[in-house]
Amino acid sequence: MSVWRLELRDSFHKMGEISVLPGFLHLVSLGCLHKGQKIGFLFFVREVKRESSVSFDISKPEATASVKRKRVKRELELNGEHHKKQFGVVPDIEDFRYEKAKTLTASSKATASSVKVEKKVRVSSVIKVGAPDNWEAVLGGIKSMRLSGEAPVDTKGCEKAGSLLPPKERRFAVLISTMMSSQTKDEVTHAAVERLSENGLLDPDAIVRTDETTLANLIKPVGFYQRKAQFIKEASKICLERFGGDIPDSLNELLALRGVGPKMAHLVMSIAWKNTQGICVDTHVHRISNRLGWVFREGTKQKTTTPEQTRISLEKWLPKDEWEPINPLLVGFGQTICTPLRPKCDNCGINNLCPSAFKESSSPNPKQKKTRSP
């Protein structure tokens, strides 16, 4: 096969000669067309030598090639793929590595971008819950059903404790009554308060001087009466030492008392200090709010699972002037109609608005006809 012998020149000097097979001549020509002909040509000759063992001779071998390769990389960085396609420069292995790394980087960025987009979609898809439909009609209906005042909370709730006492003594009675009320019916709590009053123990100083066993026997059978006797003695001592015999007047200080949780603290602030800072959510308020579809866990359409979740959800949409009355209102409704077991949906005036109406066993008689309010 014939071999073409080519002479390398720049504008002024002969730089060397090469031997090229005819089939590669057009590539050499393409490599010499642009301004940097030596880059393309030197690069090409090295490839020809490697593939076809054609010898070549040039005046500036390795040093020039090394410098030119770096320049190629810089030009590739600046001009990208378009530059190579335009001038037909065959990439070196270093350029392959560079392009591969750049592709991987771009791919990683694209993946990260898609992840960011996905996260944005997830954030934007979080459910924002506003005031429930017909809540005013539902609340009005419950208020109408509660006008009779027949529920235990209406006559024996914590707000009735020490009602005839001076303000300071009444506040202490409200605190003690509230601390005993958890896991206990209003009637039982009220009776325990009456026994303490009869023994002169609605006073912090008197409680501190009374032994814990005597106190526990007086408040029995309230739920967990022994633990509550201990907490009541501790709270009485704090009231004497830090508040001059009065009770704490802030939510945080009330919560610092052992045996006082968020429900109790909000109730005491509302009743004793007339300072409503949040909704008091007990088991009745928690249950009824979920049955009515009034509350949801944060960012979801799922029911709340704790009274504290219910409080947070209610406070997001219920007008603040309803925060104080909502507790005795729903407690009494839960004691008389919307009971924990077998709610009396047939007797409920809002069963046409309640999403849970007749979905639980509402009557011990399964054959009783279910009738919704018009």
Please bin the fraction of helical residues.
Answer: 40-55%
- The CATH superfamily label of the largest domain reads Hypothetical protein, domain 2
Query: Tell me, what is the CATH class of the largest domain?
Result: Mainly Alpha
- Global morphology: elongated
CATH architectural designation of the largest domain: Orthogonal Bundle
- Mean pLDDT equals 77
Largest sheet: 3 strands, antiparallel
* Low-confidence sequence ranges: 25-68, 80-126, 363-367
How many angstroms separate the termini? 104 Å
Determine the structural class based on helices, strands and strand pairing.
mainly alpha
The Cα radius of gyration reads 43 Å
Protein name: Endonuclease III homolog
EC number: 3.2.2.-, 4.2.99.18
GO molecular function: 4 iron, 4 sulfur cluster binding; class I DNA-(apurinic or apyrimidinic site) endonuclease activity; DNA binding; DNA-(apurinic or apyrimidinic site) endonuclease activity; metal ion binding; oxidized pyrimidine nucleobase lesion DNA N-glycosylase activity
Domain HhH-GPD: 180-336
Word description of this protein:
The protein is mainly α and 374 residues long. It contains 17 helices and three strands. The chain has helices spanning 25-31, 37-52, 62-79, 81-87, 93-124, 135-145, 152-156, 167-181, 186-198, 204-208, 212-219, 225-243, 251-255, 262-272, 283-291, 307-315, 323-336, and strands spanning 4-9, 14-20, 56-58. Helix 1 runs antiparallel to helix 2 (37-52) and helix 8 crosses helix 9 (186-198). The protein is elongated. It starts with a strand and ends in a 38-residue tail after the last helix. The relative contact order is 0.07. The model is unreliable at 25-68, 80-126 and 363-367 (pLDDT under 50). This is Endonuclease III homolog. Its main location: plastid. Residues 180-336 form the HhH-GPD domain.
